[in-house]
Amino acid sequence: MTEDQHAIAPNPPRKALLLHRQLDRVWSDLPGWRGTVCSVNHGTIGLRFMATSFAFFAIGGVLAMLIRAQLATRDGAFLDTQLYNQIFTMHGSIMMFLFAIPMLEGLSMWLLPKILGARDMAFPRLGALGYWCYLFGGIIILSSLLFGVAPDGGWFMYVPLSGKTYSPGINADVWLLGVTFVEISAVAAAVEIIVTILRLRAAGMALTRMPLMGWYMLGTAAMMLVGFPPLILGSILLELERAFDWPFFEVMRGGSPMLWQHLFWLFGHPEVYIIFLPAAGVLSTIIPVFARVPILGYGAIVAAILGLVFLSFGLWVHHMFTVGIPHMALAFFSAASALVAVPTSVQIFAWIGTMWAGRVELRLPMLHVAGFFLTFVMGGLTGVMLAMVPFNWQAHDTHFVVAHLHYVLVGGFVFPILAGITYWMPMISGRFRVRALGETAFWLILVGFHGTFFLMHLTGLLGMPRRIDRYPDNPEWEWLNLISSIGGMVMAMGFALFVLDIAMQWLFGRRSHRNPWRAPTLDWAMALPAPSYNFASLPGPGRDDAGAILPLARGEGLLPGAPRNRREVLVTDAGTGRPSHVAVMPGNTALPIWTAMVLGSFFLLMLAGLYVVTPLAIAAILWAGWQWGGFMGSRADAPAIQAAPGLSLPEHWQVRQTLAYSGTVTLLVADGTLYASLLFGVGFLTVIAPNWPAPVSGLGLGALLTAGAALSVMTVATLAARLAETRRATPSGAGFALAGVLAAGLALVLLGGLAMLLDDPRRHARDALRAVLLGYSVFHGVVALMLGLRSLCDARQGRTGSQRRGAAPVWQLFQTFWLTTSVLSLGVIAVQEIG
Amino acid sequence: MLIGSGLITVLVLALAGLAVWRGPRPSDERRWTIWWGLGFSMSVLAVLLAFALWAGERMIARDDGALQVQAEAQQWGWRFVQPGPSGPVETEGVLYVPAGQPFDIVLTSRDVIHSFWVPQLGGKMDAIPGHRNVHRLMADAPGTHEGLCAEFCGIGHAAMRFEVVVYDPAAPPPFVSAESLP
After folding, report:
1. Is B151–A256 a contact, with Cβ atoms under 8 angstroms apart?
2. For A529, left (φ over 0), alpha (ψ -120 to 50), or beta?
3. Among residues A508, A536, A563, which one ends one of the domains?
4. What pLDDT is recorded for position B182?
């Protein structure tokens, strides 16, 4: 790292206070309520995510207490069955979708730029949009509980129980629409995290040397990117079935309830590791700090992370061992499920080895780490037991599984997160904590947790199934349940005390000095509490750990201050960390909250069943989406920026591999996964579902010709988009852009005509799937058309030049994706027709 | 399996505890990640998996002419069809099977997904609309066992119970007259 060719000369030192004032003016939120609405700063958004998710955690915890109150005696008359069903469904859904995922998103948004040496996340506005979608979606889901129409089909919403016939109310729609709305934030976060880790690391920080937290979050985000699309697709299909009677899961018309289970668990299992990996990242960060030695086995841990990411997608079937799947598949998935314990054990032994090498200080964060060890090891081992099919058949859907999953989730997520919160609190609040409160909270939580769940293993082995609200004929389960209920109350007190501890620290703690834990990572190379811009000058080779705090504050690093009065970050090469260019970030804006509101109006209209009005909401969404592009582009070539002596970098408008381009590629990976899941659905129903083959289709030569014409003009549009970029410096560039826009528009019109020719989607699953394939194509056509229009505007208004490309590269990406998926869809339909 | 899990838990926690309480010692990366992380975990898993596959193999339903009964689930009750002295007999809420011989249950559902489970007899299997699942069980001795629905199926889920009456094959009960329903 200190090789001469990589060394970057320091900038001359300046007054730290002046730099701080200059940067803070540019990077901080607006004062007052406008700051609340307009902030896009990763620090603010990350903390908001974490605080909001903790509020939802409290609500989910209250629901859990209601469940325990009901089960404490065998004839519990505290809740009626209908309300009980709503409460356990909401407990699971809130803890998964409104607590765990947003908590890890918030932690990574707040922490990643700091630990990687950047000033912000790659897409500040997207982070803010994700937050508002999460908040509004969460409020929609929660308010259903107040109105007594909360989802009541269990958190995994199995069809046909959650279908229209057996759940006629809007309860299930609340889940499907609300969770999908919230998942916008998960996909947004995944894209943002990946691009941030790959492109915004400190100069010279090679991928192979980045802090382990970066690797963990990269693995997490990759799983989110591929794990959430199947769930989103499943939710869309089920909502289409419920709203418009398109059969995907209904057996009579060629659907299958098994399709839902596959799509759900394709998401649901990686979900467990999505939750575990960031928590393990916290552990890998904290343990070496308190053992006072570097982490042992960096390479082995990275390999374990990659192994987990890969294996986690081979496991989903193990939630379905009792649905009657082929014999060999059982053996395969059983082995894969057991194998996933291997990378986990590699990490656990690496942590123990680290502690072995050092002298461990048992400060409060380390107590929570100890809580993790105690709890998670047991949860993991019961997990291995459950991977064994014979045992699984016995324990599946009993309280044994309830105990197992709480050991894994509380042990593998909650304890590490509590460790993380107590560890980073000095950086958040700038203060030390008040003594003794935190330790008491820890012991209450630990004792309460094991009091609740340890004996629950036995309750399950004695045969008590999940999700029953009373058990009048089984007095032998009663004492176990009573103990669990008492343990639950103790645990709740512990969490209340934990919150009190945090509040006390914020209000009354004495000021912390810099780097109170003497940690080595870059996140501590800043003043406390962390400033809005993180680093007055950016870290580079030789100045890339917590020891660089003073040189960085004095402006000796890269891109010191904010001399151009705008938010500038350094973009680096994905692998080596070589500086590539300077990206100019958007500042405070209300656009994210507006966009979330129009998106929310769409979901609310769907929920209310006012389908006639939804086109208005869609138009509003398109309008808001159009506004997002307004910030991008520049009318003139800017001179290169001197980041350090001898290091001049272009602005991002003058390079092709921008953050936006990387982000689009990442988003298309998620999009492609959604499409692949859809094709999986087509194949699955065709092969597995009863009541196939479908009735003879009415598609004829007319439809084939229309589809062919649509694909031809799509191809023309794709070529035009390409020429619009390559000829951007000539007058013909705008002409090609116009041609591309017209061709894309024509293709959309032809697709609309094709929709008229399709068979009635309500007739059979095959016809419904074809309608979805067409809808998918139309959706991407609209996005491609909007990007085309943006490129046309760029060309007309002088935002393109020999170096400036405007929106054209991204347009090309979408245009190519649209064309490729449409060709595949037509191919699938053609195969169905011939075969 | 429970004992083994307990031992592993104690072992791991003891290692962690030792690491915390004793001062710094030389710590070799390969020993921890390769020997413990990979070697230890994989050998335990291999033994466990081999055993599970062997045990599972014996539990799989196969086409060997075993006695077959049918169970049809609906919200919220069970309907069984079992061979009687003069042709199939249909019962509601009670299943009669002979002791000491394996039998297959053919599971179907009329509405939503249910799951057939008799804790004392062994594992469970889902009843899924549009699908037909076969599940093999065996009861060793005559007696009565309680069964329940193990997949959440709506308001009446908790009360969706049934009984399995295991009879001595030498003296089949006269259930044809008393409990059977048309």
Report:
1. no
2. beta
3. A508
4. 35
pLDDT at B179 over 60: no
pLDDT over 60 (residue A834): yes
Separation in Å, CA of B2 to nearest CA in chain A? 9
**Which residues from chain A sit within 8 angstroms of residue B131, using beta carbons?**
256, 258, 323-324, 690
What gap in Å lies between CA A283 and CA A291, rounded to an integer? 12
How many A×B Cβ pairs under 8 Å?
224
Whether residues A346 and B33 touch (CB distance < 8 A) is answered with: yes
| Ramachandran region, residue A800 (left: φ > 0; alpha: ψ -120 to 50; beta: rest) | beta
- Report the CATH number of the B67-167 domain: 2.60.40.420
Q: Which of B157, B160, B164 to mutate to test the interface with A (most CBs of A within 10 A)?
A: B157
Query: Do residues A601 and A729 both lie within one domain?
Result: no
First to last CA, chain B: 46
- pLDDT at residue A4 is higher than 50: no
Q: How far apart are CA A327 and CA A782, in angstroms?
A: 45
Query: Exposed, middle or buried, B88 (CB in 10 Å: 0-12/13-18/19+)?
Result: exposed
Residue A657: inside a domain = no
Q: Which of A256, A462, A465 sits opposite B130 (nearest CB)?
A: A256
**Taking all residues of chain A, what is their mean pLDDT, rounded to a whole number?**
93
Contact A397/B151 with Cβ under 8 angstroms?
Answer: yes
Domain with A216 in it: 16-31+40-508
pLDDT of A248 strictly over 90: yes
Query: Does B48 contact A342 at a Cβ distance shorter than 8 Å?
Result: no
Same domain, A623 and A706: no
Share of chain A above pLDDT 70, in %: 98
Residue A744 has pLDDT above 50, yes or no: yes
What average pLDDT score do residues A216-238 get?
96
pLDDT at residue B181, as a whole number: 38
Query: Is B5 within 8 Å of A352 when comparing Cβ atoms?
Result: no
**CB-CB neighbors (< 8 A) of A471 in chain B:** 158
Residue to test with chain A: of B18, B31, B33, most A Cβ within 10 A? B33
pLDDT at A2: 42
| A478 occurs within a structural domain | yes
CATH number of the CATH domain containing A738: 1.20.120
For residue A359, list chain B residues with Cβ-Cβ distance below 8 A: 23-24
User: Distance from B17 to chain A by nearest Cα, in Å?
Assistant: 9
| Pair (A278, A174) in one structural domain | yes
Does residue A636 lie within any of the structural domains? no
Comparison of pLDDT for B48 and A152, the residue scoring more: A152
CA distance A53 to A39: 18
| Shared domain check, A333 and A447 | yes
Does residue A735 carry a pLDDT above 70? yes
**Closest partner residue to A384 among B45, B123, B157, by Cβ?**
B45
Of the candidates A508, A529, A547, which is a domain's last residue? A508
Cα angle A228, A327, B122; round to 5: 95
Number of domains into which chain A is organized:
3
Same domain, A432 and A340: yes
Residues A54, A142: one domain?
yes
User: What residues of chain B lie within 8 A of the CB of A296, using their CB?
Assistant: 27, 29, 32-33
Are both A106 and A210 inside the same structural domain?
yes
pLDDT in tens, A405-456: 999 999 999 999 999 999 999 999 999 998 889 999 999 999 999 999 999 9
Residues of A in contact with B40 (CB under 8 A): 345, 349
Yes or no: say if B78 and B93 are a contact pair by the CB < 8 Å rule: yes
- Same domain? For A302 and A169 the reply is yes
Q: Which amino acid is at A681?
A: G
- ipTM comes to 0.86
In a domain, A76, yes or no: yes
For A114-130, the pLDDT digits (tens) are: 999 999 999 999 999 99
